Amino acid sequence: MDDVINNLIDVCAVFMLLLSVFTMATTRMKPLVMMFSAQSLFLAIMAALVAWSSDSPHIYIMAVLTIVLKVIVMPWMLLYIMRKINVEKEVQLSLGIPGSLLAAGALVLISYYVTEPLLGSLETMERNCLALSVSMILIGLLLMCTRKKAITETVGLLMTENGLFLGALAISHGMPLIVELAAFFDVMVAVIIIGIFANRINRSFNSVDTTFLRRLKE
Hints:
- This protein is mainly α.
- It is built from eight helices and no strands.
- It has helices at about 1-25, 30-55, 55-85, 95-120, 130-145, 150-170, 175-205, 210-215.
- α1 packs antiparallel against α2, α3 (about 55-85) packs parallel to α7 and α6 (about 150-170) packs antiparallel against α7.
- The model has no long low-confidence stretch (mean pLDDT about 75).
């Protein structure tokens, strides 16, 4: 039974990484938000599997919160913001799609190289997910750096947080409940604030292109 759970955990982590990589191949923001929602669903399934295998009831709470906040509420909020400011497509990229995919592949290889010395010292069943977690964090940061719309940078931030949560599960079967709750609601508040600022910026400058906003400093 433990082997089956281990395999299911690995499958969820791999799908999460694949969705992170796929985000680098799309220019439309609605599919990007849907990929984040799907990634969060796999994260919730994985958390439930870890809770079951490790007999840690508080992780069930985090799995439920992940579904409610990251699979349903946050994607709805992002789509609502997109409709509000009438933004549907990411027109310009700092790095083209082929270059973005190559960079994402390179980050995955770097993550495996960096985490390989640590894997032997981990005893938790999720140790195979550590490299995937680091890969997701780096790809999320890459998404934030190469996309020019504030909404897509928000999705990159949320995917980076998913990678951090995956890493917490991989290393220590999750953080203490109070820390996880604080992290969830910090991210929730961040999304709300980003949505308000994106709406205000769009009203003032008729754009949420962060490259244009940087030029205002000059």
